[in-house]
Design a protein that fits this description.
The chain is an alpha+beta fold. 37% of the residues lie in helices and 16% in strands. Helix 2 packs antiparallel against helix 5.
């Protein structure tokens, strides 16, 4: 798969089919993840794959409880995504949140059917600087295999219980960074159409100074090099 196709069409997939992901596919996904850049090449990460039905069932109960907590915060106006970004359209933000809740409800209701839960742990992660490149590499590699997924932190509401269930050696400093739910998607891949364009979210040299180029539409697959981009300013 062309790298730009992977970059442009990898998106969060929450509606997943129950058929298992072959072990060789899982191996390729994780082998790509461990090639990600990380500070000092210290590789302070651990990937824990969960496919045991009984364990997934226990985690599903926690996941549903965690989502209920998150949406209680959201309803009270205290959730992390309750307000749109500065300059964003509030109506579009509300519609996005509605869609995300719908697909998130599906994931919660069918959590036991997700073929693979991939928990990602790190030590002294500097706010995620070392682990998030690996997570994104895993999602891109999954996309190349036709596997969809979503990164979620809902289960961090129950860190102690999750650590107990998974036997995490927390005394060594391991902390859950995120969990990926992975499976073959029910939906279709496609370029995200609801992104604000480059010139609205970018500056040059000083905040608010025009970036210098307008990008009226996604540059892939139309013409990635786009020699006719309009220079502004």
């Amino acid at each position: 798969m062309d790298i730009h196709e992977a970059l442009y069409t990898t998106r969060m997939m929450r509606r997943l089919r129950p058929e298992p992901i072959p072990l060789d596919v899982q191996a390729r996904i994780l082998d790509a993840a461990v090639r990600a850049p990380n500070g000092g090449n210290t590789q302070r990460w651990h990937f824990l794959a969960v496919d045991d039905p009984a364990l997934k069932s226990e985690l599903a109960q926690l996941f549903r409880q965690g989502r209920a907590l998150e949406y209680e915060k959201f309803a009270a106006g205290t959730g992390p995504m309750v307000a749109p970004a500065p300059g964003a359209d509030p109506t579009r933000h509300d519609e996005t949140m509605r869609r995300i809740k719908g697909s998130g409800d599906y994931l919660a209701d069918h959590f036991e059917e997700v073929p693979l839960l991939l928990f990602v742990f790190a030590i002294d992660d500097l706010g995620g600087a070392n682990i998030y490149p690996a997570i994104w590499s895993a999602l891109l590699a999954a996309r190349a295999e036709g596997v969809g997924g979503v990164m979620t932190m809902v289960l961090r509401n129950f860190n102690d219980r999750v650590n107990e269930l998974l036997g995490v050696p927390v005394e060594e400093g391991w902390t859950m960074s995120a969990m990926l739910a992975l499976g073959y998607p029910r939906g279709r891949w496609g370029v995200a159409a609801n992104r604000r364009p480059v010139q609205e979210v970018s500056s040059r040299n000083h905040w608010g100074t025009p970036f210098g180029v307008d990008v009226p539409q996604p540059l892939w697959p139309h013409d990635y090099l786009a020699p006719d981009l309009a220079t502004v300013g």
